[in-house]
Amino acid sequence: MPNAEFSPSIDSRPTYAGLVSQGAAHGIMVADDAGAEALCDLAGSDASVMDHAHVLLVGAAAGTVARIEALKPRALHGAPDLDAATPLIKRLLSEARMGTHLYLAGSEGLMGLVSALATAEGLPLDAIQMEHRGSIARRMQCVHCKGITEDVTTDPFICSHCGLTLFVRDHFSRRLGVFQGVCVDAEAPGEVPETQEIRA
Amino acid sequence: MSKLALKVTAVETLSPLVKRFRFESPTGAPLPVFSGGAHITVEMPEGEIVRRNSYSLISDPYDGSGYEIAVRREDRGRGGSRHMHTKVREGDEITVSAPANHFQLDLRARKHVLIAGGIGITPFLSQLKQLGMEQKPFELHYAARSREEAAGLKLLPGAAHIHIHISDEGARMDLGAILDGQPLGTHVYTCGPDGLITAVADQAARLGWPKTSVHSEAFTAPPPGEPFEVVVKSSGKTVTVKADQSLLEALEAAKVEIDYSCRGGACGRCETHVTACDGRILHNDHWLSEAERAEQKTIMPCMSRFKGARLELDL
Question: Is residue B185 helix, strand or coil?
């Protein structure tokens, strides 16, 4: 699936400029199954970028893993999901030196979470490259109970923690890597707009 | 800008060129606390004119019992630091601005590397106290020409992560060695001469540091120069800027309303539109880009001067 074109919105909404090779600099690359395609394209533009890259694939299919392996990254790691990947991402970040570049590709949820981990380690956002691929599902935080609901594809949606009906906002927390969901029927309980698929 | 009427309670000579001053409230009331790297603007009335210079606070940011600054005497300057050295004594009243900070720490950083050249040590003295309080990892590198000139030596605690580089003793600072291999998420801060700031920025860029991890504060007072005239558009009034006065000081003396903060060409607060310019603006600030300088459509009155027939400001 190609890089999604998101419609212009408030400044808070992240945008993803795409991956550009930083040549011989050390790299940490994190991608999901759809995002791995962006890593292939990156290696296609500059094969040497893989010589210095630690690649972590999250929930990638066996075929995808084989394709990345063929690009001969310096190291290749795998994890079934973001929760399982988090300790490894933290370790890679904690061992890395200044001058290391972070390349993220895939869903907004993956990029949001990993960039939040990286900024918590002091890495400025402008040192993080991101390319959106695949689903436009969002990682949403309920502003009321603070619980996070993964893979939200409809607006409104039901908070998986407190059960409130939440409106999907473009307001994004860079600290947490989540979009904000706000109770949609607080003024008039029960008056809930029709549910629709979220759009890019 | 809120002002504080304080009393000079201590003056101490730190080195042949640097004195430390302590100011406290005459009533003993606590002063506003600040953050590491903040400065105050000190008013120095002399006859009809009031000079205002900004100095970094070197005292503990969380200690409201007083403010301390360290002033290096610049004999070729406009006279502000000379005034501090020769006229200000214990017991004097002194007016200062509330603290403002254009050189704060990025508290998201995992580690802070502080690099000071000469009197550029001053903003780091308050930052050190903040970093200590917050238990943040840091290292400080202080470069000075000679031990005698290094006023900071009397103010720095002895600690393993505080490194002194005295060039007369052959211990020059090696920026490559300092910056290479720092952990991801390190931020570097430089204060001192322009050459040092540029050298750190260049070295960081060579090592692939992101620009937003590299911070600096140039230590600049407005340079004196040839007298010149400016026209204030709203009133048509002509203001003469004397040789040892900055444009901002001349405008203030002429009662022209103008906002300011750092008075050193770094913060951008006093940026002023130029409505007519027949001549050349002598830009001395760190705020305008090369393109903006070339356009001659804006000027930073705190630092910059003018040479030519006519300069009209949108004030």
Answer: coil
